[in-house]
Design a protein that fits this description.
Elements: H1 8-29, H2 32-51, H3 58-80
Helix pairs in contact: 1-2, 2-3
Length: 84
């Protein structure tokens, strides 16, 4: 079994892929809860990578989270109307 403690980079890869799969589903369904789950999974993956002492993937994770954050903001705006 792959765990965050025993194999952090393998765990991070799995969570990153799961997060991006959730994000793709959230884009199609326009479902805020799924966007949040996707963000949590990708953030967890990035945290695991950073905890392992690697930072060469920071731009990759930052870009993924930025895309999801923009989608979440757009979703919230469409639900509440544009901000003044």
């Amino acid at each position: 079994m792959i765990t965050r403690v025993a194999a952090p980079l393998d765990w991070a890869t799995i969570y990153d892929k799961a997060g991006w799969t959730l994000a793709n589903a959230a884009f199609r369904m326009q479902d805020l809860d799924t966007f949040i789950q996707a963000r949590d999974a990708i953030q967890g993956a990035w945290d695991a990578v950073k905890a392992s002492g690697q930072n060469r993937h920071d731009a990759y994770f930052a870009e993924r989270l930025k895309l999801i954050d923009e989608a979440i903001a757009g979703f919230a705006e469409s639900e509440n109307g544009p901000a003044d």
